Amino acid sequence: MKDIVNMYYPKINNNESIKYATRILNRIEKLSKISENKNNTTRLYLSIEHIKTNKIVEKWMKLAGMQTWQDQVGNIYGRYEACTKKQPAILLGSHLDTVPNAGKYDGILGVLTSIEVVNHLNKNKIHLKKAIEIVGFADEEGTRFGITLLGSKALTNKWKKKWLNYKDKNKITIAHAMKNIGLNTNKICLAKRNTKDIKAYIELHIEQGPYLYKNNSSMGVVSAINGAKRINCTFTGESGHAGTVPIYMRKDPLIATSEWILFIENELLKSKTKIVATIGKINCYPGATNVIPNKIKLTLDIRGPKNNELNKTISNILKKAKEISKKRNIIFNSKKYYSTKSIKCNKKIKNIIKKTINKTQGNCPSLASGAGHDAISMAKKWPIGMIFIRCIKGISHSPKEKVLKKDIIKTIKTYMEIIYNLTEKI
Ligand code: HGY
Ligand code: MN
Ligand code: MN
């Protein structure tokens, strides 16, 4: 097949890539200041900051020649038509919400880089065989209401009505928060996208891990996204006076928890499964210096590339919690509240991405994503592909998150080529 991409489509040249990367970084700075507090970046679903961000991103999409709209769960969209009307779209995107005290690039970089490649098409008056759509997802992190992927789940019609009653830490429900920003909770189902309207979903995202950094590569292709489970765990013992109860008589749930956490670490250090576990939230009740705690509540986030290994490891870890509790006359309870299976990226798309990155970078590391992404939701209905860009030392979910300008310059050129190839070949 003639190499149409090289013959007709205008590459992004060095000067353009520097100009586009500079604009991306300026816009990232601007968005990082839209936060619920001024000394860090925290942007939550259905907040004033969410709407403010949507408005600014929508303006940038319009400047890139896109028609824009916000859907019924608060995702912001742009569409750039194909050379003929009513063509299905290659949907590019990522999320615009953040974790608390976030970095500047997680999610945001993918949306802004996508806007730049459409801007390049518009500037050159190029319309491709497929439409290009961009979506800024409203809630990938689940920071405010505890359920992740709320933006992308609407596209695949996986939204559950019961979620409308889920509350944030101020006891505000999703339903109430939606009404506050003018969303109609009876119309959530209209955010569903027809399968035939989208050919593929492509997400450019920072790696959020150390692999590309250690490999000294700007970009990599994602092979799969690890499965993840989140479990609420409680250890219940007996509170007492910190000064009088002898150690051997105590039923201290915090000691049991500590023994369990060290067991988990030991098990995973020994195992070859690449499974990772994190206790990100832990509360000790009643929480007084001179009182032996009676209850420990914690969250276990555990992830891995293979579903059966992950399930086996989880049952082994929970079994151990019960054994430790029995030995210490403590009660252990757990309840899973989030679960996604590991999913593979579409082979054909992965190969197109890999080939293009190989061409521009001379190599193309292929890696599984330890982090979750909206692509997990989208894979339920459409073929997905993901491109990783290096983040320094693999640091993410932290204000120390950093991406080099030279990597953005390289990536934007490659991303444009990838999109040209995808519109021709899938
Ligand atoms: O937790 C995750 O993997 C993603 O950053 N939400
Ligand atoms: Mn994140
Ligand atoms: Mn992310």
Features:
426 residues; alpha/beta; Aminopeptidase; Alpha-Beta Plaits; 9-stranded mixed sheet; globular; binds (2S)-amino(hydroxy)ethanoic acid; binds manganese (II) ion
Written description of the protein model:
- Pfam families: M20_dimer (PF07687), Peptidase_M20 (PF01546).
- InterPro entries: Amidase_Cbmase, ArgE/DapE_CS, Bact_exopeptidase_dim_dom, Peptidase_M20, Peptidase_M20_dimer.
- Belongs to the peptidase M20 family.
- The protein is an alpha/beta fold and 426 residues long.
- The chain folds into two domains: 14-225 and 342-425, Aminopeptidase; 227-340, Alpha-Beta Plaits, CATH 3.30.70.
- It is built from twelve helices and 15 strands.
- The protein has helices at residues 4-8, 14-32, 48-63, 108-123, 150-155, 174-180, 211-215, 253-270, 307-327, 347-361, 374-378, 405-425, and strands spanning 67-70, 76-80, 89-95, 131-137, 198-206, 219-225, 227-236, 240-241, 276-285, 291-292, 295-304, 331-340, 343-344, 366-369, 384-389.
- The mean pLDDT is 96.
- Bound molecules: (2S)-amino(hydroxy)ethanoic acid and manganese (II) ion (2 copies).
- (2S)-amino(hydroxy)ethanoic acid binds at residues 140-141, 148, 371-372.
Number of helices: 12
Query: How many beta-strand runs?
Result: 15
Q: How many independent structural domains?
A: 2
Rg result? 23 Å
Sheet bearing the most strands, described?
9 strands, mixed
Query: Mind telling me which CATH architecture of the largest domain this is?
Result: 3-Layer(aba) Sandwich
- Give the C-level CATH assignment of the largest domain: Alpha Beta
Shape: globular
As residue ranges, the low-confidence spans are none
Global mean pLDDT: 96
Helicity level, as a percent range?
Answer: 25-40%
Q: Could you say which structural class the secondary elements and strand pairing correspond to?
A: alpha/beta
Measured between the Cα atoms of the first and last residue, the distance is 14 Å
Order of helices and strands: HHHEEEHEHHEHEEEHEEEHEEHEHEH
**What small-molecule ligands were found?**
(2S)-amino(hydroxy)ethanoic acid, manganese (II) ion
Q: What quaternary form is this?
A: single chain
For this structure, the CATH topology of the largest domain is Aminopeptidase
CATH homology-level superfamily of the largest domain: Zn peptidases
Percent of residues in beta strands: 15-25%
